[in-house]
Amino acid sequence: DGGITQSPKYLFRKEGQNVTLSCEQNLNHDAMYWYRQDPGQGLRLIYYSQIVNDFQKGDIAEGYSVSREKKESFPLTVTSAQKNPTAFYLCASNRGYGYTFGSGTRLTVV
Amino acid sequence: GENVEQHPSTLSVQEGDSAVIKCTYSDSASNYFPWYKQELGKGPQLIIDIRSNVGEKKDQRIAVTLNKTAKHFSLHITETQPEDSAVYFCAASRSVLNAGGTSYGKLTFGQGTILTVHP
């Protein structure tokens, strides 16, 4: 079945450490997105990519980085510059209009 | 850019009652309006959507209405059940072209509504 796979489901980060969240899709979608969700909050756009080897900053890109070397993959790195990284991270993709979301990664700073 | 406002932020109803969630958008060029349901610890799932050339769409107990003139759209859930309890997000998008010439929509989401259905 086609879909989006996010891994890991849970991730723990130590202070000053970079971590990478994986997002893979087999839907043949051109566009991919990363959102951050804090408890009781909406979805805030971090980065998005419309096509391979191209990506744009969203509303809260500071402290994050991405790459889009393959159509299927859009990994997100949470760098040590992100001072409050504890959140639920969602990856999504689309080709037409509607988004398909992954199941999310919960990142916690320890 | 597009701005989507969603109300109410929380909604509590008794099982069997109806629930209505409303959203307004700012960009008159927006032409696609989906609704997503998010259960605890999971990613949002598309439950219904509507395009700007349609005023209403229904799927069993769920319906969405769109008023383009007023730039608002609403989600209606009838005969609510406890399993309808979740966070609901509205969104709006307009068509854009990527560098490869493919048309797609980049969604702007509302703030979400926590719906609780009491048995």
Could you outline the blueprint of secondary structure elements for this entry?
The complex is a heterodimer of chains A (110) and B (119).
Chain A: E1 4-7, E2 10-13, E3 19-25, E4 31-37, E5 43-51, E6 54-57, E7 64-66, E8 76-78, E9 87-94, E10 100-101, E11 105-109
Chain B: E1 4-7, E2 10-14, E3 19-25, E4 32-38, E5 45-51, E6 56-59, E7 62-67, E8 72-77, E9 86-92, E10 95-97, E11 103-105, E12 108-109, E13 113-118
Parallel strand pairs in B: 2-13
Antiparallel strand pairs in B: 1-3, 3-8, 4-5, 4-9, 6-7, 7-8, 9-12, 9-13, 10-11
Essential attributes:
heterodimer, A: 110 residues, mainly beta, four-stranded antiparallel sheet, B: six-stranded mixed sheet, globular
What does this structure look like?
The complex is a heterodimer of chains A (110) and B (119). Chain A is mainly β and 110 residues long. In chain A, 0% of the residues lie in helices and 51% in strands. Chain A contains no helices and 11 strands. In chain A, the strands form 2 sheets. In chain A, strands 2, 4, 5, 6, 9, 10 and 11 form a 7-stranded mixed sheet that branches. The model of chain A has no long low-confidence stretch (mean pLDDT 92). Chain B is built from no helices and 13 strands. Chain B is an all-beta fold and 119 residues long. In chain B, the strands form 3 sheets. In chain B, strands 2, 4, 5, 9, 12 and 13 form a 6-stranded mixed sheet that branches. Chain B has a 5-stranded antiparallel sheet with strand order 1-3-8-7-6, with no helix packed on it. The interface between A and B is medium-sized, with 28 and 27 residues.
